């Protein structure tokens, strides 16, 4: 095994990845790194994180339908979810899920 750099960990568990390693792995600000246990140490590799919706397409259609029925259109999902949580839409959605499970 060839050591290509070293780093010191801070009291908060942070390390600075040496510049030569960042260049080798093509890491930039905001890059995500996976840590994998390997024989004799830890293996670092760049990775991509992809989003995964907690709702099925049928559930999203229900959310859209209920939101449209209430006459409000949102440009950002965070604003929509906040508004949905404030109203009784969550109750409607939960009822929809319960009815779907019963079928």
Order of helices and strands: HEEHHH
Question: Main sheet: which strands, in order across?
Answer: 1-2
CATH class of the largest domain: Mainly Beta
Oligomer: single chain
What structural category arises from helix and sheet content? Answer: alpha+beta
> So how many helices?
4
Sheet having the most strands: 2 strands, antiparallel
Descriptive overview:
- The structure is a single chain.
- With 103 residues, the chain is of the alpha+beta class.
- It has two domains: 1-51, Pemi-like Protein 1, Chain: D (Ribbon); 57-102, no CATH class.
- 43% of the residues lie in helices and 14% in strands.
- It is built from four helices and two strands; from the N terminus they run H-E-E-H-H-H.
- The chain has helices spanning 19-25, 57-69, 77-86, 89-102, and strands spanning 32-38, 41-47.
- It has a two-stranded antiparallel ribbon.
- The longest helix is centred in the last third of the chain and has 14 residues, at 89-102.
- It is elongated.
- The termini are far apart.
- The mean pLDDT is 80.
Essential attributes:
14% strand; alpha+beta; 103 residues; 43% helix; Pemi-like Protein 1, Chain: D; 4 helices; 2 strands; two-stranded antiparallel sheet; elongated
